[in-house]
Amino acid sequence: MSLLRRWFDPIRSSWFYQKPSRQEVLSTEKGLSIYLRLDDVYSYLAVQTLAQLDEILSDELKPLKIIISDRAPEPPNGMSREEWQNYCYNDAKILAKQHRFGFDEFPETPKQEALQQATIILQNTPLRGQNFLYLLEDVFHMLWQQQYGKLKTLYQMARQHQRPQDIPERIFSQDPVLISYYEFGERQYHAVDDLLRLTRRLKQQQLLTGNPIFLINHIEWREHLITDVEELSVIQALHPELDLFIALEDPISWLLLAYIKEELAAYYNIQLNLYPLSYQRRDFFDWGLATRLSKRSGVAFTPFCRPTQEGTLNMAQLFYSVPEEQRLESMYEMLQAVWSKGKDLSFKAHVQQMQQALGIERLAELDIPAILQHNDELCAAKHQPGFPVLELRIDGQSYVFNSLYRVWMIESIFSNVLEDVYKQQESE
């Protein structure tokens, strides 16, 4: 398999990268759908944008289809249900603060009885269009803010005076939904994280009648939240540290490491600490997603040769064979060689070339699998559902998050810390 990758991966990846990454037109035949769960905290955030989105949808996409599921699949990444729930609540709280969604500071899972009552309300209401979307949002607020008295009143009215409605754009399903998402043109978009990407697509296809403004504090790639010289110096003086747990065969790890190193580390004076993980089988990835991220973040990508398990061990061996102060740069060079120069680090000749380029005279005699296993354990203790996993430490506080969808949190946290510093100075 490594030989095939060495020859065909660079050719195939270059061809894929050079062809248009965006299909010009996605089919509107099935319209636009959003999948929700009443006990999903991301659905609670998503419904707060639906009425506004519906207002600017073209007639071609109306009515917006609402699919409400009553089932959740198993949590990702081997997490327990309690770990997954805690992660979702903390993450949603951060999203709500960043983008100014309504959200309870101490969220609680709605009671089962309340969920059943809410389902009856939504099944029986004859409201459609904007009126239904406002009701849907109100019902979510009642569930997540424990307004069970109001919910019970609505439920009694729905049960006594209304019957189940057969409305095509309102579907109650038992198909499992992990977190809320949109579906358009047979593609899925996370209901919060991919909302901007979805609206860009709809605008490009002239399917919106107005400008979408939903996530007002969104930070674009290579844009900075803090640009004032004085404010920047305050953050730099706090000497932030960022731990990055990466799967070496995962291109997202390369793209994010390169972006953070090139754009954030020196700018904010971040000490970046790397923890390579053992082989996680991340080499079968979404090529389209990685390509889009490369083009939006401005990080070189392709021609590449996906690392095998042997390749990741060789990379880790090289990483731990250089002095500690040189490891960040060495990993950057290795991943750059793999993901933008097509080097196969399971191939002896390429490994030797890389060893020479890094100035390594002799490989360290270390138990590399044991070191990687220790890193795996440290990473697992963070209880995150995806990779890479990041831990930011600044001003005595620690913040843990994960994946390309949360890189913006680095600058958002800095902004919040800066605000706290100024408040403390004013009170003294």
What does this structure look like?
48% of the residues lie in helices and 11% in strands. It is of the alpha/beta class and 428 residues long. The strands form two sheets. Strands 3-2-1-4-5 form a five-stranded mixed sheet. A four-stranded mixed sheet has the order 7-6-8-9, with helices on both faces. It is globular.
Helix-strand blueprint:
Elements (H helix, E strand, L loop, with lengths): L1 H17 L13 E6 L3 H6 L3 H7 L8 E5 L11 H19 L12 H13 L4 H16 L3 H14 L8 E4 L7 E4 L2 E4 L4 H10 L24 H9 L3 E7 L3 H18 L2 E7 L9 H11 L11 H11 L7 H14 L7 H10 L10 H13 L8 E6 L2 E6 L6 H19 L1
Helix pairs in contact: 3-6, 5-6, 5-7, 10-11, 10-13
Key traits:
about 425 residues; five-stranded mixed β-sheet; globular
Radius of gyration: 24 Å
Uncertain residue segments: none
Task: Work out the strand percent.
Answer: 5-15%
State the distance separating the first and last CA atoms.
65 Å
> What is the overall silhouette?
globular
Number of helices: 16
Classify the oligomer: single chain
SS-based class: alpha/beta
The tally of beta strands, per DSSP, is 9
Helical fraction? 40-55%
Strand order of the largest sheet: 3-2-1-4-5
Largest sheet: 5 strands, mixed
